[in-house]
Amino acid sequence: MGFGGQAEVAYVQSLFRAYYQKGYSNPYIPPQMERREYGYMLFGQRTMVRHLSLKDPSQLLDLLKNVAPAHVYRSAAIYHYPSAPMEEKGWIGADLIFDIDADHLETPCKASHDFRLCTSCGLRVSSDRCSGCGSDQLEDVKWVCDICLEGARAELIKLLEFMEVDLGIRRESMVVSFSGNRGYHLAVYDERFLGLGREERQEIVEYLTGANMDPSLHGLEAGLEPGEGPDYSDHGWRGRIARQSYTILSRLARGDEKTVKALEGLLGHRIVQSLKTSEDFWRERPRWDLLGGRAETRAKALKALVALSVESEKTHIDTVVTTDIHRLLRMADTLNGKTGLKASTIPVERVEEYDPLREAVAIPAHPETRIRIAYAPRFRLGEEEYGPYSDEEAKLPAFAASYLICRGVARLAERRR
Amino acid sequence: MTSYDPYLLETMMSQLPFLRQVREYVRSLGLQLSDFADPSMSRFTEAAARRVEEALIYGVRQPSGRGLQPSEEEVISYPLAMALVAMLSSPKAVRRFAASEAERYGRILSTIAGERIRDVLLYLAGEVLGVEAQAEKPPYEFRVAVPQYLRLAVGLNEPRWKLVNRMVHRGYVYVTRPEMITLVKNGLEHHIRRRLEEMGRVDVPQFLEPYVERLKKILEKMEWRRTGPLSRLGPESWPPCMQALRARLLAGEPVSHFGNFSAASFMLRIGMTVEEVVEMYSQRGDFDPRIARYQVEHIAGLKGSRTRYSVPRCSTMQTHGLCIENGRLCGGVRSPMEYYRRMAAAKGGRNIDRKASQESG
User: Fold this and answer.
1) % of chain B exceeding 90 in pLDDT
2) Of B14, B38, B34, nearest to B26 (Cα)?
3) Are residues A180 and A57 in the same domain?
4) What is the 3-state secondary structure (H, E, C) of chain B?
5) Do residue A71 and residue A152 come from a single domain?
C-alpha cells in the first residue's frame, strides 16, 4: 500500500507545510550550522537530496517552507566544504551521536501489534501470499505503543547516565530528541570529543554496550577472597556490576520468576537453589567469595551473575550509527514523514516525564478528515485512543489521519480506486 | 598552571631532546643545516646518521643501554637526525624512527625513580602532548581525560587498554604508573611522527648526500627483509583467526561476508594465487566458481575499483567477532599480517641457523 497516491501526498504535505510556516518556532539549530551537510527526502520518493549547505536559520526555514519534505537530515559532521562531494568535504569533526530504536529492543508487545499488509489490496495477511488477491507484494508494518516507547526511554536514561557519570559530559553539551517514531536520539557537541575517529568511537560504543568486556580486568574472577572484588560504591562498570548483582540476588531470594529462569538458563536448577540464600551475606558489601559451596560452583555462579548484570546495565544503542562519522541524522524539531510526529528536542531533565505520543503531536486536529483504513491496531495520540480499525472508514482529527496515512495503512476516503 | 621543579626540567631536557625548551636551546645556538657541512661538526653529523641508522635497523628492539647517557652530542644531533629522516621521504622510515625514539624515551622514563616520575609524566602529558591528566590516589596514580585516553590507547591491542575494561568516572580513565608510561610513550611516538610529517620533503644538501644514500640502502634492504620471506608459510603459522576461518571454509561451514573477505584478503596478501584462494571456497554449499573468482579478483584489486584491499586489523576482526581469545595467543600484534610477518621472520631465522650449523658440521 506504501504511501498511497498523489492525493495523500498533497494532503500530508500541506499539513507539513503549515507546520513549517506556523508551528516551527524557536527550533533546534545545530552548532556551526553553516559547516554541516543537509539532506531531505520528498514524500513518496526513496532517494535523498543531499550535500546541501545552509548558511543560517532563515535559509533552513525557507527550504522547509518551500519544499515541505517528508524527512529532514543534517550531518553529525562539520566540514570545510559541506556541499562538496564526500571525498572533498574536508572532515573537521563530528558530534557524538546515539540512536535508540525500540525496533532493536526485545519488547513483549511486538508480536501483538506488528503486522503484514498486502500492498495491492490492503488486506492484513499472515503468510507469504495474500489470501485475498494472491499477491506476494506484502509489507511488514511496525507499530509503536507505550510499551515500546517506555523500553526506549529506559535505554535512553541508562545512556544519559553513562554520558554524565562515566564520560563526564555536561548536560549543556547534550541534545536529546524524540525520533518522531519509535525511539530517541542523542547528539553530543563537545569540542573534546569532536575530533574522535571511527576507532575511538567504537571504543565508546563497546563501553556503553559492555561488548568485549573481560570481567577479570575489573577484578571479577574465580577464587576471590572475602572483601575482594568490586564494591557497590566503585566507579564505572565495577560498581554497576556489583549493584546489579545484588539486585539479582535479592530478586532470586524473593523467588522472582524471571530472575530464576534467567539464572537457571545459565546455571541449572541445583546451583540456582543454592544461591537463594546469598543475598543475606551481600547486604554490607558484595561477597563474591560466597556464591554457592564448591569452588567450581562459585566460579560458574560469578560468571553468570556478571553476564546477567552486564546484560541489564548496558544500553541498547544502534552501534553502527555512533561509529559512522559521516552520518546524516534526523534534524531535531522537524516532522517525521513516517508518522507526522515532531522529532522534538527534550530537555535532559524532562526525559523521565516526556510523553512523545502527546507532546510530539504538532499537526493540528483540524480539519477532521475521513479516511479509509486498511488495518490499524489500537493506538494513542494526543489525549485520546483510536481504533482498532480493520478495512473501514473513519473521520479522524488531522494529526491522527495523517499519522495513519504516513504509516501507510490508510488513504483519503474520497479517493476513488 | 602547574609549576615544575627546575632541577627536574634540566634532567629532562638533557634526555628528551624533543622538549620545547631543548628545541629553543638548540635554536639559541643559531645553528643552520649548512653549518654541519663544516668538518669540525662532523661528529654531530655522524651521531645523527648513526641514530637514524640504528632506528631503521633495530626499530624498537635496540640494544639496551643505548641513549641513556645524555650529552650535548645527542641534543645537537637530534634535529639533524630528524632532517635526515625527512630527507629519506619514506613513510616507513618515519614510522620506524618515531617508534624507535619513543621506545628509547620509554626506557628513560622507566629509569626515573620515585616521586619524580609522576611530575615528569604529568609534564610530558600536559605540556608536550596536550593531554589532560592528573595525579590520583593509589592504586591508580593517574587519570586521563577520556577523549585523549582514547587517542593514546586506540592503537594498543591488549584487552586491558579497551575502554570497556577500564575504570571510567566523570570523564576520566584511571591508569597505573606503568600504564601511564606506555600511554606517554605512545603519545610521543605520534608526536614525533607528526613533527616529521609536518617537515614534509626536505632537499638533500650535497654534504649529506653520502649519508642519505647509505640510509636509503639500509631502508631498501629492510623492505626486502620484510617482504622477502612473506611468500608462503604453512597454515600452522597463520594467525589463529585466519587458521579458524580456513578450517571453517574447508569444512564448508558458514562464514560471514566479512569473514570471507578477511580470509581472502589475507591469503592473497601472503602470496596465494587467485586460483588457490578460489579453491578454498569450493566447499561452500552455494559455491559458484565464476562468482567466487570474480569476488576474489575484486579483493585482489584486479577487478572493479582496482583497489587492492588490505587485510583487516585486529581491532576490526574483534569488532566482527572473528578474533580468537582476544588476541591472547598473538603476542600483542595489531594486525593478522603483523603476526604473519613475525612468524615469517622467526621461521626465516631458524632456517638460516639450521643451514649454518649443517655447513659447519
Assistant:
1) 22
2) B14
3) yes
4) CCCCCHHHHHHHHHHCCCCHHHHHHHHHCCCCHHHHHCHHHHHHHHHHHHHHHHHHHHCCCCCCCCCCCCCHHHHHHHHHHHHHHHHCCCHHHHHHHHHHHHHHHHHHHHHCCCCHHHHHHHHHHHHHCCCCEEECCCCCCEEEEHHHHHHHHCCCCCHHHCHHHCCEECCEEEECHHHHHHHHHHHHHHHHHHHHHHHCCCCCCHHHHHHHHHHHHHHHHHHHHHHHHHCCCCHHHCCHHHHHHHHHHHCCCCCCHHHHHHHHHHHHHCCCCHHHHHHHCCCCCCCCHHHHHHHHHHHHCCCCCCCCCCCCCHHHHHHCCCCCHHHCCCCCCCCHHHHHHHHHHHHHHHHHHHHHHHHHC
5) yes
pLDDT value of residue B7: 56
> Is B170 close to A165, i.e. CB distance below 8 A?
yes
| Closest Cα in chain A to B147 | A193
Interface A-B: count of C-beta contacts within 8 A: 81
Q: Are residues A182 and A99 in the same domain?
A: yes
Picking from A195-199, A317-321, B26-30, which range would have the lowest pLDDT averaged per residue?
Answer: B26-30
Residues of A in contact with B150 (CB under 8 A): 196, 200, 203-204
pLDDT digits (tens, 9 = 90+) for B206-252: 999 999 999 999 888 776 555 544 557 888 889 999 999 998 888 87
Check A203 against B163: CB less than 8 A apart.
yes
Q: How far is A221 from chain B (nearest CA, A)?
A: 14
Domain match, A288 and A327 both: no
Catalytic residues of A: 99, 101, 318
* pLDDT value, residue A122: 78
Higher-confidence residue of A69 and B231: namely A69
Q: CB-based contact (8 Å) between B154 and chain A?
A: yes
pLDDT band of residue A250 (cuts 50, 70, 90) is very high
> Do residues A401 and A352 both lie within one domain?
no
Give per-residue pLDDT as tens, B185-202.
999 999 889 989 888 888
Structural domain that includes position A292: 215-313
Do residue B167 and residue A234 have CB atoms under 8 angstroms apart? yes
Judging contacts by C-beta atoms under 8 Å, the chain A residues touching residue B168 are 166-167, 207, 235-237
Is the Cβ pair B171, A237 closer than 8 Å? no
Domains with residue ranges and CATH for chain B: 6-226 (1.20.930), 235-356 (no CATH)
Strand order in the sheet with B133-135: B133-135, B142-145, B172-175, B168-169
* Mean pLDDT computed over every residue of chain B: 80
Assess whether A72 and A195 both reside in one domain. Answer: yes
Rounded mean pLDDT, B52-57: 86
Q: ipTM, 2 decimals? A: 0.93
- Name which residue leads in pLDDT, B262 or B309: B262
